[in-house]
Protein: C1QL
Organism: Mytilus edulis
Amino acid sequence: MYSFLNSLSLKSQELSKAERERERKIESMQRDLHEEQKRVNTSYDVKMIVLYIDSSCCPIYLSSHHAIKTKSYFTFPEIKEMLEKRDTVAFSAYRSSSQTLSNGEIVIFDGVWTNVGNGYERSIGVFKAPNRGLYHLTAVVMSTDGNSLGLNLCHNGLRMTRSYLTGDEKVLEKLVRLEHKMELFEEKMKTMESSMSKKLKRMDEIEKETETLTDTMLDKQLQIETRINDSYQEIINNFKTQSNNETTLYEEKMDSLFDSLSLKSQTLSEAEKERERKIVSMQRDSHEEHKRFNTSSDAIVKNFKVQSNKTLQELILQQQKGKISTRCWRKRETVAFSAYGSSSQTLSSREKVIFDGTWTNVGNGYEPITGIFEAPHPGLYHLTAVVMSTDGKSLGLDLYHNGLG
């Protein structure tokens, strides 16, 4: 049983080691993907100032994954019209490390690449719209270890959309109309209109340059995203294959261990039942032996009483016939005692046998508490003791007088 527990402990250690190695690989993959994303974003920094112009409505900076799909949604006249109405609002955030989530917990993107309008709060992961309008929100989340993950996009505590993840990267996307978190001030609007007119003039000058630069960036972004997606998919596929192989191997080993443990448990159970059966049999035999001992003890005690009474009667007859000196009877009183053990007694070496019950104690010479007889008068005494050992064990019995056996 001890060797089996040691084997089970070693197997558990191997499983823990394999699990830690798998977690290390996942963290390494996430770190590599994060570095790759940082390199992609770094390549955009030089040209970001120009592209901020259309960030109020075009969701290109909310998620680079969808820049190509959303670029064609708006024309420059439409962008000018929207810029004349309100300030630019855009943000792009990321997770600096993996996050362990519980039910109902907020996914906090604590790193910020872009936060035009200061609507996003990185410490709590909440975006508060500075202006009322139509916002395009996109979130990319991946669950590890093949675990399922339900992702909700909430507006003022109400779920607007939901994505269910099962270990792969998923995109949660929603167009939500957000109301201003506070009343709009007329004075701010006037200042904004003055500023927008200057920006529109500047837009006319750089429109052609922006279109060329945007096309170049989109082409480069497409190449980078294609390379990232291909690399990521290859890593995920390899990891899934390796995880499935390791899982199957460990499942087979655990099944074998559980089968062996079941057999050991059955063997122990049968041995326990056999031990209990033997204990019951021993108790029954001990009870029968105790009954035989009590029967024999009762017969011996009765015989002893008869013999004691007979001896006393003979002494009385001899006294009457003159065989015992009358002068001796005149000098001392009659002394006699008869005692028995009320229960069995477990003895160690040189321990006293105490007969704690008395039938006769003429002269009060016998003390049932200590099991010692002290002669009240000098004379000739006849002492007899009957003792029996149980369970076939040997017993040595000595009669002592003043400490001498």
